[in-house]
Amino acid sequence: MVQNAAKPNIIALENIGKSYLQPNGQTISIIENINCQLQVGEIIALLGPSGSGKSTLMRMIAGLIPPSSGKILYYNRQLMGLNPGVAIVFQNFALYPWLTVLENVELGLKAKGEPKDTRVPKALRIIDVIGLDGFENAYPKELSGGMRQRVGFARALAVEPELLCMDEPFSALDVLTAENLRFELLDLWLEKRIPTKSILIVTHGIEEAVTLADRVIVLGRNPGRIRADLSISLPHYRDRKSPEFQALVDQIYKILTNPDLPDVEAEESTTSTTSSSVPVPSQPKYQSLPHVRIGSVAGLLEILEGRQEKDLYRLAQELLLEVDDILPILEASKLMELVVITEGDIQLAQIGEKFINSSIDERKAIIRDRLQKHIRLVQQICQLLQAKRNHRISEELVLDLLENHFTSNEAQRQLRTAMDWGRYAELYSYDEPAGEIFIEESNAESEVPESLHF
Ligand code: ADP
Fold it and tell me: Residue 224 gets which letter from DSSP?
């Protein structure tokens, strides 16, 4: 991984894994084999699709939860329990409504045992630095979202953490407030008005990551792992319209939208897109369905029809879609092989073109065929239904099967998505009161391909 001999490591992650024991006794692996170092003087962005383990990794670094395997070193000493050098800023501000701004900011200092006579001046100083002076005695409900998050920052910074961790700190704010706060934070950091040695920000915004970070670590899912570790040495303040900035955004977009691309690791201090390949990505152990409706997939295919612009990033920009919004739709379209994605470009597959020019019934038949050919969970449900004489199975049977691979919540969501897709394609129906999946009598024999009979 990227390492600079001149800068000491504040955190080192050695073969970190995290797994959870399921109610059925199975162990589910959430994160596997994470190796990296966070160095003094860096802003590091942790980027990845939802469920890739970003928050879990941050919580492990903060010592809020232990890893299941591997070691976390804080200044070269193994971390046991809470990390004394970390403070966290949360997405939803996490303020106490019955405490004033000053009292909220004092909290961290109080927890560290700071006596009142030094605690109050320290809290007041940071309140001033963060632009909250005049609001010391206000309650959170009197403040706007942006001001509340300033309190969140002030509370975290008051304890002068070595490592400031931020979990999507700007995502609950409106666009302009978020932009303003982002730059104010960058000012504080660049002008060294805060003693913090390093900042770790969890985000799903590619532009946010490239705007702020010296290094972007891209995580993949199933299991959570590092797919790329890119250094960014563009000088601050970065021009979002510059070709170098756009090239980096494009590169990260490509990695995120191509789960099949080999994982990459950047060379030290790239200004643009230099990266060197490392071996084959670890393959997901079980196909995971993105949670989107077939209607969204159809919407994407219709938008692609007759378009000249094939670049995914520009397409998403045009549609005002964040990567997190478009990623699951892309994944679903790709799983069903309705589109072809190469590097950062997308185009309709032949069957995708056919889909757009079809009637509703023909569209259903196309999706039916796609599901039967490419979607493992749908295949398994069909197989189970065919194996039962009355063509009915309890949803619990499917959930049991899924809980070998997913957490209980995720298993529920996987089942719901497979139900949505299968019902659209008229492969099976759902008897909600009974919690049973069944095949309508008229479909019982005809809808499942030969290969699935046993
Ligand atoms: P991200 O922040 O990238 O969205 P998370 O770290 O929140 O990802 O979660 C990663 C995965 O771990 C998800 O599938 C989530 O359901 C699972 N997970 C997180 N916490 C727990 C827990 N306490 N028990 C079981 N599974 C969990």
Answer: B
For atom 7 of ligand 1, the residue with the nearest CA is 55
* Burial environment of residue 40 by CB neighbours within 10 A (0 to 12, 13 to 18, 19 or more): middle
Residue nearest to atom 26 of ligand 1 (CA): 407
SS3 34: strand
Rounded CA-CA distance 71/62 in Å is 13
Average pLDDT taken over every residue of the chain = 88
71 contacts: CB under 8 Å, gap ≥ 6: 12, 13, 14, 15, 16, 78, 79
Bridge partners for 200 per DSSP: 44, 165
Pairing state between β 43-47 and 198-203: parallel
Residue closest via CA to ligand 1's atom 23 equals 20
Q: Is omega for the bond preceding 96 within 30 degrees of 0, making it cis?
A: no
> In percent, how much of the chain has pLDDT > 70?
90
Please state the φ and ψ torsions of residue 89, each to the nearest 5 degrees: -105, 125
Q: Is 222 in the pocket of ligand 1 (CB under 6 A)?
A: no
β-bridge mates for residue 229, sequence order: 217
Question: What's the half-sphere exposure (Cβ side, CA atoms, 13 Å) at 24?
Answer: 15
Name residue 142's amino acid: E
Domains and CATH numbers, the chain: 9-271 (3.40.50.300), 294-443 (no CATH)
Which is the closest atom of ligand 1 to the Cα of 410? 16
Rg, C-alpha atoms of the chain: 25
Which of 402, 441, 405 has the alpha carbon at shortest distance from 419?
Answer: 402
* Residue from 163, 240, 257, 255 nearest 266 by CA: 255
User: What's the CA gap between 283 and 8, in Å, rounded?
Assistant: 34
Neighbours of 124 (CB within 10 A): 18
Q: What pLDDT does residue 370 have? A: 97
Does residue 1 sit in helix, strand or coil? coil
Structure confidence by residue, pLDDT tens digits, 161-176: 999 999 999 998 888 8
Going by C-alpha positions, the residue among 366, 404, 388 that lies closest to residue 436 is 388
**Residue length of the chain:** 454
Residue 414 Cβ < 6 Å to ligand 1: no
Instruction: Give the pTM.
Output: 0.81
Under 8 Å CB-to-CB from 308, ≥6 apart: which residues? none
Ligand 1 neighbour 344 (Cβ under 6 A): no
C-beta separation of 393 from 430 below 8 A: no
> Identity (one letter) of the amino acid at 84?
P
